Amino acid sequence: MGKLGIKTAVFGLTANFVLFLVKLYISISSNSLSIYCDAINNLTDTLSCAVALVGFIVILKLDERRSKRVQSLASFLIGIIITAIGLYFAYNGVERLMYPTAISYSKKYALLVAITIFVKIFMGIVYILINKKQSSPVFKALIIDSFLDSAITLAAFLGFSLTPRVNYAIDGVIAVLIGITVAVSAIKSVIQEAKYLINN
Question: Crossing angle for the helix pair 33-59 and 137-166, nearest 10 degrees?
């Protein structure tokens, strides 16, 4: 489990950090809040994979029972981080609704964002195949996160594309929806892992 987990965590860390850089560049260049939130979401995923990486390295030195507890603890910490980020998104979305700002739409940027949707779907499929080889709560969390992220990026893409056309801060609305979706999903994971840690 340890070695496979380490390779998976490194893969996720690298891919998510590249996605973060691409989306951060687009969000700064276009002034898109929804893309910015999505970029920070990928940075959070990068940090989550870093936590998972540390957990899998520790697992190499533990027995099976302790190994499961470490994996559960890693998932719990990842959930806490993601919950905080989700609430941050929602706050920024409300702020954008109160103080709308113009977005610089670009077909090139829109295409790049669309490509990142498929990258996340591909990552989810990779995690599914890895989880079939060796099941882990961390892998399952990464699977859910990847497909949820692809939906979040789709929402960000729509916000980025529609805001300049309708003259309304849809970008802010999308950011609020992204924040709530991310926070609710993460809270469920936190509760589930907390129950496991308390009972084992």
Answer: 170
Split at pLDDT 50, 70, 90, the class of 111 is very high
- Residue 194 or residue 100, greater confidence: 194
Contact 13, 78 (CB under 8 A): no
Label residue 170 by pLDDT band (50, 70, 90): confident
Between 170-199 and 64-98, two packed helices, what is the crossing angle to 10 degrees? Answer: 160
The CA distance from 156 to 32, in Å, is 9
Handedness of CA 91, 77, 146, 49 (dihedral sign): positive
DSSP summary character for residue 62: S
- What's the pTM value of the predicted model, to 2 decimals? 0.78
- Distance, in Å, from the CA atom of 27 to the CA atom of 87, rounded to the nearest integer, reads 19
